[in-house]
Amino acid sequence: MTTFVTTSFYLGVLTGTIFYLYLIKQVRNKRKSRKRSPGSKVLFFPDKQIACKSHFSDESGCTSFPCHYSHSPTSLSFLFQLLCSARKSIDICVYIISCHDLIDILIKLNAMGVAIRLITDGEYEDVNNSWIWKLRSQGIIVRTDKTQYLMHHKFVIIDNKIVCSGSFNWTSDAITVNHEHLTIIRDYAVVTKYSSEFAKLWNYFKYQSIPSVTNTPENSPSRRIRSKRR
C-alpha cells in the first residue's frame, strides 16, 4: 500500500511538472510569435531616394525608361503599397496634404470604389499646393478645420484594420528632407480608438467645410494664410 501511494505521489508530481513545462513553452511560443508578427512597423523619413509611384502602385508597373525614381523599397513605397491594399475605406486626418503622388493614389482608389474621407486643417485650403480642390473635384469629401486652432493630427485608417500615425505630413518635404516617422499599427483596440476620434472630428467639422469658389483648377490663387494660434 505504501509503495502504491509513493508511486502515485511521484507520478502526480511528474505529471504536474510536465504540464507546467508545457505551459511555459506555450507562453514562450506566444511571445515569439508576437515578436515575429507584423503587428506594428515604424517608417522613418527622409527617404534617400523618391520611390517610383508607378512601380509600387500600378498593376502594369513602371513604363518609363529610364526611370528617374527609385524601384528599391523605401518608407514611401511601403506607404504606397499599404494604401493600395485598401479594399473598403481610407479615412485620413492630416494637417497638411500636398504630395501629388499620394493624392493621385487616393483619386485612383476612389475611382475603384474605395470610400475616401479626408479631414485637414483649413489654414491651407485655398493655397495652390494643398490640392484640396483636386480631391473634391473627383468626388472625395474633404472637411476642414476653419477655427482659430490647428487640426494637427497626422493619421490614416485603412479598412478599419490598420492605422498609420506619427509626425508625417503628406508633403514632399516630409518625404525628402524632414526627419519624420510613421508607426503602422494593426491592433484592433488601438484602431478602434482612432476610428472614434475620426468619427468625432468628421461630425464636428461637418458645417465648416463648404467648398469655396477657389477650390477649382481655374481659380486656385494663393491667398493670404490666416493666422492660427499655435
UniProtKB/TrEMBL annotation:
Q: Name one GO cellular component term.
A: mitochondrion
Q: Which PANTHER family match?
A: CARDIOLIPIN HYDROLASE, MITOCHONDRIAL CARDIOLIPIN HYDROLASE
User: Biological process (GO) annotations?
Assistant: lipid catabolic process; piRNA processing
Output the Gene3D superfamilies linked to this UniProt entry: Endonuclease Chain A (3.30.870.10)
Q: Which family does it belong to?
A: Belongs to the phospholipase D family. MitoPLD/Zucchini subfamily.
Q: Per the UniProt entry, what species is this protein from, by scientific name?
A: Octopus sinensis (East Asian common octopus)
| InterPro entries, alphabetized | PLD-like_dom (IPR025202), PLD_domain (IPR051406), PLipase_D/transphosphatidylase (IPR001736)
Provide the gene name from the record.
LOC115227296
Q: Any signal peptide, and if so, which residues? A: none
The highest taxon in the source lineage is Eukaryota
Every PLD phosphodiesterase domain range: 147-174
Q: Tell me the GO molecular function terms.
A: RNA endonuclease activity producing 5'-phosphomonoesters, hydrolytic mechanism
What PROSITE patterns would the database entry show? PLD
Pfam family name, one: PLDc_2
Can you say what this protein is called? Mitochondrial cardiolipin hydrolase
Task: List all membrane-crossing ranges.
Answer: 6-24
| Keyword terms, alphabetized | Hydrolase, Lipid degradation, Lipid metabolism, Membrane, Transmembrane, Transmembrane helix
